[in-house]
Design brief:
The complex is a heterodimer of chains A (about 60) and B (about 190).
Chain A (H helix, E strand, L loop, with lengths): L2 E6 L5 E6 L7 H8 L7 E4 L17
Chain B lengths: L4 E2 L3 E3 L5 E4 L5 E5 L5 E3 L9 E3 L2 E7 L6 E5 L2 E6 L5 E3 L7 E2 L3 E8 L5 E6 L1 E8 L2 E6 L9 E6 L5 E6 L3 E6 L9 E6 L1
Antiparallel strand pairs in B: 1-2, 2-3, 3-4, 4-5, 6-7, 7-8, 8-9, 9-10, 10-11, 12-13, 12-19, 14-15, 15-18, 16-19, 17-18
The chains are: A alpha+beta (about 60), B mainly beta (about 190).
């Protein structure tokens, strides 16, 4: 899948969900299942996620 | 009025079951009133469901609620009455095989991506060297064994176990790993 799901973490960072292609679920179904309850989330294109992880822990959810 | 009909090598009883006999007395196969086909139990040496020219290889039934497999007259596999699958496969005897309930191999660097997986719906990139593996179908309980490895010459640990996910940390969450593998056994 060329999409990712992002949601804010409790410490102010951002978590990125990488779907498993083999699971047979849609990105929406994975979001409904794997995003912690009550968390807002966005489905984004994989190219929207930086591949440079030098400052990964400083990423924020906007 | 009874409707039993005796044949040369079989019979149809009043309940509508057709029995085929091998020597006029021993029932080999019965087509029962529920349209099921019944076989004798058989043995490993003489399985009851077999093939022409290889009659010591096939399926037999060693006990109630049990399905057995034989090859060359030797028992090699079994589904026992508790649903356990047992096989030899080089173990030395027919013993219960404990299944891998979920597994994943992913790249934790750059654009984090799953290479291949089974019973995993997603992984979560929580930060540097910190990933969660989320199962498609939950494990029965959290007392499973999680085996993890990475391409780093550093410690990898699984520090959170739940029925729906595990969390994996590489190098105390200070370094990403290009290869992270996790397998769940129960």
């Amino acid at each position: 899948m060329n999409q990712r799901i992002i949601y804010p973490t409790d410490d102010g960072g951002v978590a990125v969900i990488i779907p498993a292609a083999e699971c047979g679920l849609t990105i929406e179904e994975i979001a409904a299942k794997d995003v912690p309850a009550g968390k807002p989330y966005k489905i984004v294109d994989v190219t929207d996620i930086p591949s440079d992880r030098t400052f990964r822990n400083a990423w924020e959810y906007t | 009025m009874a409707t039993q009909v005796t044949l040369n090598s079989g019979s149809v009883d009043s309940a509508g079951s057709l029995a085929l006999k091998t020597n006029g007395t021993t029932t080999a196969v019965t087509i029962n009133a529920s349209q099921g086909v019944e076989f004798n139990a058989g043995t490993a040496a003489l399985p009851v469901i077999t093939t022409t020219g290889d009659t010591n290889t096939g399926i037999f039934f060693s006990a109630a609620d049990t399905i057995d497999f034989a090859e060359g007259g030797v028992a090699t596999g079994q589904f026992d009455s508790s649903g356990n699958f047992k096989f030899n496969s080089g173990f030395g005897s027919v013993a219960t095989a404990y299944g891998c309930r979920a597994w994943v191999n992913f790249n934790g660097t750059g654009t984090v991506a799953i290479r291949a997986s089974g019973n995993v719906s997603s992984i979560t990139d929580n930060g540097v060297g910190n990933y969660s593996v989320i199962f498609s179908n939950s494990i029965t309980d959290a007392n499973f064994s999680a085996v993890a490895s990475s391409s780093l010459d550093k410690v990898i640990r699984v520090d959170i176990y739940s029925t729906g996910a595990v969390r994996v940390v590489t190098d105390a969450a200070t370094t990403d790993a290009s290869i992270v593998s996790v397998a769940i056994f129960r």
